[in-house]
Structures are given as structure tokens and as C-alpha cells.
Design goal:
Largest sheet: 5 strands, mixed
Helix content: 25-40%
Strand order of the largest sheet: 2-1-3-4-5
Bound molecules: tetrahydrodeoxyuridine
Distance between the termini: 34 Å
Length: 132
């Protein structure tokens, strides 16, 4: 699948990053089961622990609008490399992903790699573990 639009949306969302403390801008764009796109950026706080990552901003926007299945998520942090999501965000992505969800790690609009959930969070604890 061509993820150009999703990648561009993630890069655009990164521009809205509120990161006066770390100065580390992150953007994300989620593609829902019915092909809607929700974007998000990291939002920091003077009380550092209240910071919200870009991935969770985008996912929570989608979920709060009724979309709980993610087809793909594009993430862009440091534009000189492919930034992987933090551990908390990997867990949140896992909650709303399937075996075929694509995790797109973006360096720039022409350079991104695609991973599966199983590659970035093998053996994830999910709802299946609660109902065994
Ligand atoms: N950050 C994200 O937005 N996503 C990640 O997966 C890793 C970290 C943000 C949080 C904080 O605003 C800044 O990057 C530095 O940790």
C-alpha cells in the first residue's frame, strides 16, 4: 500500500508539536478501518509526567470519535533517523491494532520503513491474555 498521504500527514502534525522542554518534535497519523486519518503531536507539560506522546494523541483522537481499529500508523520524530515508538505507545498501539496493522517509521517523505506490531512488541500483553 502507498502510505504517502499518511506520511505527509504525520510530518504536518509534527509541526504542531508542543515540546518547549525537550525540543523533540514528534508527529503521528493514524489510518482507521474505514480509511479516515487522525493526526497527533507530542504535547509536553511543565509537570513533565503529564506529557502525551504524538502516537497516543492521534490514537485517542480516533478512538474518541468511535474508531477502534488501526490499519496503519505513521510516526516521525528525529528526521535524521527512523524513530520507533516508546514502550507505552507500543502498548497503546497494540490495543487497537491487528496482525496486519502497519507501523510506519518515517525519516522523511521519501524514506520510511514499515514494521508489524509483532516486530516492535513481540509477545504483547493484550485482551486475549485477560480472557484465557
Ligand atoms: N515522544 C513521543 O511523542 N513519542 C514517542 O514514541 C517517544 C517520545 C515525545 C515525548 C516527549 O515530548 C519527547 O518525545 C521526548 O521524549
Amino acid at each position: 500500500m502507498d502510505y504517502k498521504e499518511l506520511v505527509l500527514k504525520a510530518l504536518g502534525a509534527r509541526e504542531n508539536s508542543y515540546s518547549p522542554y525537550s525540543k523533540f518534535k514528534v508527529g503521528a497519523a493514524v489510518l482507521t478501518e474505514n480509511d479516515l486519518i487522525y493526526t497527533g503531536c507530542n504535547i509536553e507539560n511543565a509537570s513533565y509526567g503529564a506529557t502525551n506522546c504524538a502516537e497516543r494523541t492521534a490514537i485517542y483522537k480516533a478512538v474518541s470519535e468511535g474508531h477502534t481499529t488501526i490499519k496503519a500508523i505513521a510516526i516521525v520524530g528525529d528526521t535524521s533517523t527512523h524513530t520507533y515508538p516508546c514502550g507505552i505507545c507500543r502498548q497503546v498501539i497494540a490495543e487497537f491494532s491487528t496482525e496486519t496493522t502497519d507501523i510506519i517509521l518515517v525519516k522523511n517523505e521519501n524514506d520510511y520503513i514499515v514494521k508489524t506490531m509483532d516486530e516492535i512488541l513481540p509477545g504483547a500483553f493484550t485482551k486475549k491474555d485477560l480472557f484465557k
